Amino acid sequence: MQEITRIEPESLRNSLSLPRIRPDLRPVVPLALYVIAYAVIDLVVEKSGLLSILGDHSITAGLNLGLLLSHSLWYAPVVLLATIADGLWFHPLAFPVPLAIVYCLTISLIQIAAAMMLRQLIPGHRVTLKRGWDYARFAVMGAFTSLALAITASMHHVLADAIQWHLLSLEFQLHLIRFSTGIFCITPALVIHVGPWLETLLFGIKTEKQSQIKRTQPFGISRYSAVFAASFACLAALALYLVLGFGVTERLYVFLLLSLPLIWVAVWRGLEGLSAALPLFMVSSLAVMQYRGQTAALMESFLALLVTGSLYVSMIAIGVTQNRVTQWQM
Fold first, then answer.
1. What pTM value is reported for the model?
2. Segments in the chain forming alpha helices (H)
3. Distance from the CA of 137 to the CA of which of 17, 148, 200, 248 falls in 20 to 30 A?
4. What is the mean pLDDT of residues 290-307?
């Protein structure tokens, strides 16, 4: 009897021949891409001389929110560690080490809390930002997040013995512009394009909404796409030429000129095209202004008007996207 019981498990194990369970390494891919993107952004901002314009932790704030909204809140410890490593080693803060750690923890927790609240407010298993109310919630939460991050970044003036209110107000405005640029120019592109692309590539997840948007607004390489991209480039070049070449300094005219190429994209491509065109327009414009040796004040004003224009044009883009989806469904 003992020999039989000893033999049976071995025979069952051999007959079943169960495959060995291997760990799923696909969730590591977004993590690796995030680390590479974070390092590239830090390196490009530093080497291009735009660190004094864009500041540290500002553009990467949009990257952090994009990762947490596109994939999962399980990546929050990665965001926390990347921010601390950036503040202590890559771009050391001019604070004592304990205060620098507290600063990095604070801005990381603000971004994580914003991502958690957006995931609670926006229905569905993932954030898409392709519906009007979803983007409105993102815009409101992004504004409050930028405000909280700007207050945190300016807090060292409050800790000083004598508070210089004019310097505090000036630095708060600069940080507000920088964090708003990172959140409103980088996060929508990651959530709308990069997140669904990675989910489809890694897990084969493709929702009905994505297929509808893809069929209503194709992004394949065609003659029409090439002509449209060339028209956007011409409008952007014209706007920059009028602002920099002719010296248009009236903010209302600059706002209208910067909004012109974005409106063109919003009317023809909706929110999907606008989310891709906005970071391209920002990067190319800053590169041209840096090459021409423009002042920091002009570049900061340009970023503020660009963020304001993107929020204004996004209302048009949302209407175009929803209208085309509704027509396809009908």
1. 0.85
2. 2-16, 28-47, 51-54, 59-70, 76-85, 97-121, 132-153, 155-158, 165-189, 195-203, 208-216, 223-240, 251-291, 296-329
3. 200
4. 89
